[in-house]
Amino acid sequence: MEEVILSFLPMPTLQINIISEQTIPNILFIKQFEGQTDGYVFVSTQKMNQQGQLQAIIEVCQIPANNYQVITVNEESLADVETQLEALHFNRSTHYLVNITGGTKIMSLGVYSFFSRFNSQMYYLPIGKNDCKQIFPPANETVLALQHRVSLQQYLQAYGIGITNLHHINSLVQSPAVTQTFLNNKVSLNPLIRSLRAYKEQQKITHLPLRNLPPELSTLNNLLQSLHFKHQKQNELNENELNYLLGQWLEEYVYSTIKNLFGLDARFMGNSVAIHRQQVANELDVVLIYNNTIYVIECKTGLNKLIFDQTAYKLNALKKEFGLHVKSAIVCLTGKHITNRLNLFDIKLISGKDTTDKTLFEAQLKQFIK
User: Which of 289, 282, 251 is nearest to 267 (CA)?
Assistant: First the structure.
């Protein structure tokens, strides 16, 4: 009698995601289960397709074109959600991993109702937490810790935002040692820096030859030597070096302090990050991703009303671009009187006065970045 060998094929697994304005929960869910997933179905809307949320998710997660399907539903019609899902003729021998975090309530309810009839596990990702909770089957409300951490580039790409200067966002004009020396002596250097700022604005210069300096800048070369300042071009300050002396040193100090304090890889942070979305450009002083939350920090050596209004408006506008859970702060050497106004915008003020006391400054950063 001929021997019969039985072979058992593993049950295929499809992942179901509902597309909405917030793309990060979809990306985290896809990454969490990508090793267990054979294909994807995206429940989207006409608006999400046009705005690019669906395409951004696919690109960030690098899902091949032949490995996903999209259904476009009426986001306010349970009947339409049901009809569109029925049209795909889902197989009852398939296992389904369903993410109901996104979409309208109608879409989430429709997807939940439909896949509760199948061999499914359904999950919800709470905003601002790095876990996903299994809500179906209801008898087993398992909470899974999310393993994936999105990089800064991935996070911005997920919201349709590009980085213009990607290869330079982790570059420093001067070493942290030079910046620390500058910080330690900033009080005595203030008169010279004020003169340098006034000269730059009056002469409208983008670089400064260091020979034959005007009288008000006569001590500049001595300052640069005492700082062990590194020039790209001998006997000249280029635009970046001028900007460093006029305030960018604070940005670089904040960047280096956070990088060392939290042990962040360069993929998760940047300074002087030039971003663009469609035709709108902007620049972020310091931006980082920590535990899948984005933090945007503006660094100011001083704040008057105009600068405050511009900075607060900029940070408030960015919150609309970067998703629901954005944390923003201003590091300022002066300006405690603006704390109440910042609270109105949910922007934290980190006192730059404490930069000379490393322990106090790091304590403020730890209170902000959690």
Answer: 289
- What pairs with residue 169 in β-bridges? none
Q: Which two tokens stand for residue 73?
A: 């539903």
Domains and CATH numbers, the chain: 13-148 (3.40.50.10770), 166-205+247-368 (3.40.1350.10)
Q: 66-105: b or e for each residue (b if 16 or more CB lie within 10 Å)?
A: eebeebbbbbeeeebbeebbeeeebeeeebbbbbbbbbbe
Q: And the tokens for 239?
A: 């635009």
Minimal CA–CA distance to 324: which of 20, 108, 116?
20
**What is the reported pTM?**
0.90
> Which of 189, 157, 167 has the alpha carbon at shortest distance from 62?
157
Tokens 């986001």, residue located: 75
Token reading at 178: 């030079």
Q: What's phi and psi for 142, nearest 5 deg?
A: -75, 140
Task: Write the pLDDT tens digit of every residue in 168-204.
Answer: 999 999 999 999 999 888 888 889 999 999 999 999 9
Nearest-angstrom CA–CA distance, 221 and 229: 10
